[in-house]
Design a protein that fits this description.
Blueprint lengths: L5 H12 L4 H23 L8 E5 L5 E3 H15 L4 E6 L6 E2 L9 E9 L10 E9 L9 H4 L8 E7 L3 E6 L4 E7 L4 E6 L10 E3 L10 H11 L11 E2 L5 H11 L2 E4 L14 H14 L3 E3 L19 E4 L1 H13 L1
Parallel strand pairs: 3-5, 11-12, 11-13
Antiparallel strand pairs: 1-2, 3-4, 5-6, 6-7, 7-8, 8-9, 9-10, 13-15, 14-15
The structure holds 2,5-anhydro-1,6-di-O-phosphono-D-glucitol and manganese (II) ion (2 copies).
């Protein structure tokens, strides 16, 4: 079988569909290279002294792991000097990261969750990286946080890597979704799945069910119906999976369908859900929609939300379209 590398795929996309300008191609390659470096560090585990807590809190009030910080640094350093970026923003940094004056400033802005699934790092369960690419506003001088606050529909590219039994990179530039597998010996990304499509129907759901007592009524209604199984209103049994790494749950859903939920609940109204709009929900929503699925906050398309804050959280319902439409309709009825 002829192997197509990430580079070849990107060059051909640029040539045939003109969807990937040269600078964006460079950007994607640099992010992919950084993911390769993170994958290498993850794979070393205890031998690389990358496990455990760094004993510092990030802006979200979460204790950072060593690998959260290391992955953030790897992405920053890799992307600073290429001339393709105007600025970066990360789940692990309170404020945006401007490109140092010694380097040229480009026309794109990169956002990332450097290490998704932090609670799984020390127990050798799949984790990943999520990224989102926006265009800087025309005639941008010194970038500010406000320049990043664009709805997800403005993304020009998004992707995630999963560091699991295999390291994979799933990518969209708005022309379908493709998956690349890291050939660890050769150090190259090889195209292994073209045009991924999420099955319309499913019998699997992913939710942290320990939060059930805090859920709002529409979520409880939807979940009760799923759990009623073959004798309930849905007339079929559903199975549950919860990895606690969004990337890994989403990767399963891209491959065999399912619905992923992280709803807002009745606890802290200042925290509508757990996941972050700019680093997690938007890029994953872009990928899911490009693969024929749907992604809402219970009311509207995630990618139509006008962001107000860089680190804002958002309720998330995504995956197989029929299920997402159903749980969204329950919210609208309520
Ligand atoms: P992060 O490690 O970047 O903070 O993200 C973790 C997220 C997401 O990946 C996962 O689906 C969810 O948080 C897990 O939440 P629970 O701890 O409630 O299971
Ligand atoms: Mn995350
Ligand atoms: Mn993270």
């Amino acid at each position: 079988m002829k192997r197509i590398s990430l580079t070849q795929y990107l060059v051909e996309e640029q040539r045939e569909h003109n969807t990937i300008p040269a600078e964006l191609r460079l950007l994607i390659e640099v992010v992919a290279r950084a993911c390769k470096t993170i994958s290498h560090a993850v794979g070393k585990g205890a031998l690389g002294e990358v496990l455990g807590s760094a004993d510092i809190e990030n802006v979200q009030g979460e204790v950072q792991k060593k690998l959260d910080i290391l992955s953030n640094e790897i992405l920053l350093e890799a992307n600073e000097w290429g001339g393709h970026l105007a600025a970066m923003a990360s789940e692990e940094m309170e404020t945006i990261h401007r490109i140092p004056h010694r380097y040229p400033q480009g026309e794109y802005m990169l956002l990332f969750d450097p290490l998704d699934g932090s609670s799984n790092i020390d127990v050798n369960v799949s984790i990943g990286t999520i990224f989102s690419v926006l265009k800087a506003p025309e005639g941008l001088g010194v970038p500010t946080e406000a320049d990043f606050l664009q709805p997800g529909s403005k993304q020009v590219a998004a992707g995630y890597a999963v560091y699991g039994p295999q390291t994979v990179l799933v990518l969209t530039t708005g022309n379908g979704v493709n998956c690349f597998t890291l050939d660890r010996e050769m150090g190259s990304w090889v195209l292994t799945q073209r045009n991924m499509q999420i099955p319309l129907e499913t019998k699997e759901y992913a939710v942290n069910a320990s939060n059930a007592r805090h859920w709002h009524a529409p979520v409880t209604r939807y979940m009760d119906e799923l759990q009623a199984g073959v004798t309930g209103p849905r007339g079929k049994d559903f199975n549950m999976r919860w990895i606690a790494s969004m990337v890994a749950d989403v990767h399963r859903i891209l491959n065999r369908g399912g619905i992923f939920m992280y709803p807002a609940d009745m606890r802290d109204p200042s925290k509508p859900g757990r996941l972050r709009l700019m680093y997690e929900a938007n890029p994953i929503a872009f990928i899911v929609e490009q693969a024929g699925g749907a992604a809402t906050n219970g009311q509207i398309r995630i990618m139509d939300i006008k962001p107000e804050l860089l680190h804002q959280r958002v309720p998330v319902f995504l995956g197989s379209k029929q299920e997402v439409d159903l749980v969204t309709s329950y919210h609208k009825e309520a």
